[in-house]
Design goal:
3 domains, alpha/beta, elongated
Length: 557
Amino acid sequence: MKLAIIVPAYNCAATIGDTLLSLQDIDKGWGRVERVVICDDASSDNTLSVIQSITFDRCPLTVVRHDSNKGEAACYNTMLNVLSEDTKWFLILHSDDIALACFLERNLEILRQCNERVAAISSNYYVFGRIKERLAHSPAEDTVILRGGAKADIDHTAMVGCWWHISGSLINKDLWRQFGGRNPTLPQVGDWDLILRWQTAGYFVGHSLIPTTKYRINGGKSVSTRSYIEFRDLQERASVILNYPAVFSCEMRRTIARKVGATALRRIGNLLRAGEVHLAVRGMSIGYKCVLSLMSDCNPSWSDKLRAGIYRLNMYCRWIIEFGFVGLWKLHRCDGSSRLRQIYLRSRRFGPIVCRDCQEDFAVINSVICFGAYSFTSARGQFGSVLDLGANIGIATRYLAARLPNISVLALEPYFENCELFKMNMATVGASDRVRLWQCAVGATGGRGYLKSGGTIRFDSFQLEYSAREEPLSSDQSVSVRALASVVEALPGPILLKMDIEGMEDELLACRADWINKVGRMMIEFHESGEEEVWLDALAAEGWKSEKHFDTWHFYK
């Protein structure tokens, strides 16, 4: 029975020569080898010229090259297509590893003991490079450990992870192809996923304790390093687990979730110590999503507590990035007891901001600036104007004016105290020349009305009630109401419309036929229960696409 050796290669000019020479130095076993195949995955260094400079004459050597970088999984498939149908088994050797003198003889000996139910058998190896050379698994003895489809074997693979080592492995070509080989979307844990696929289908995977290769640990920035920074391995691990609900019980997922969470926290701490705050915040979000996905259907109350805790931690990190530790301290000490006291913050991106020492003002700053509720991608000339309904103290107006520096903004805000702070926030950045503020409410029709604050006074939560013409109104609560259609008519289109008007969305959207034709994008925060789903469906039926940014829905065509 013939076998082949395949070598995936990418930017390995410094090591591929040693790998080829280690094969050339092997004296025995070549009579059973069809060929050695190397796939250069569009290397940008001189990998190909190094390969061509090595004298290799033990068996036919075939070198194939990709026109563009396609990844390790694609390399395997390309190389297998070169092999003859008679070659039923192949050995993988990575381009930075070294084959030992027993590499062929030991694997041929293992091959003689295999049947069609064996998918792959890897071998022990030495580790060398940046560390002192050592044996990966001790002792090195003449033993092959096989694990198949029994529950205990699958549970072992599920909890231990990838105990199988792909470089140096002897693999059944038909079973590799039958199961699709290594998943290209899982560059970090694809080996683990592959042996789970084999085992759950009842096939055997093994590991020989006699070493046949040396595994090089490289210095510099490697894929593993990028994985560490991007938390890619944790995302892939969670993805694999969710693909095998019959394998991973709730108890298993809880155990793994704790380990994933601990790993994420360690990395976040290391990134913060290295000054990589943005990467730490991103990792916090990724780690949270991984743990939550693993725990979502196991313990709902635990998941809720985790969600709340991770959100708070994420918020604190975002505040540090945007406002520094002084800003975080001001957020933390805000208890709503000094509503008349003004707080001054300095945003890294938007400059000085004035607010009150109350939770609702800090909440709108958190939503708009820290979590990007109104973030969007805009093309030049996409909008003719911005209309901010429910401008509050001007945080969203400041954000939109900064994003669209040449566009005029009209802001409507009914509450007089909010309007005073709005003017202060516009003056701090010199935006008053292109930002207009109307102190009024907005509705489906024009008229007069008054504001109701509900049971507790909140500066961001007033409801408008129209008044009958003969009804007397107190001067401090009396407001003018502008019909939205008349406001839109006076603005150049297309209009970027932001709407945060505490429950009046339903009234305005119900009369959208009067104004929506001039609108290019809508940003709406829904406040009434049941309202959100109704309008998502209604606007989708009219051709509006939607996506949610934090607590705000964006609609666009």
